[in-house]
Design goal:
Layout (H helix, E strand, L loop, with lengths): L6 H8 L4 H4 L8 H8 L3 E8 L2 E8 L7 H5 L6
Antiparallel strand pairs: 1-2
Length: 77
Amino acid sequence: MSIIATVKQLEAIYGHPNEASTVKVADRITPQYRVLIDKSPFAALATCGPEGLDCSPRGDLAGFRLRWMARRRAPSS
């Protein structure tokens, strides 16, 4: 098995992401995402920082709230 260590190597295999994928990226939970989360029994929150990527599952009965997430924002570049 080979290791993919760079974005260039990954793009050589999969190509570039199309706009339908990249327009879904947001630095906060948008009102539209809030509606989806509120109706879902499960969500996975992915974050990226200096130490890499982390994906945390969250869930309960449909309508669970992720109040603390709404206040989180990506740092300004």
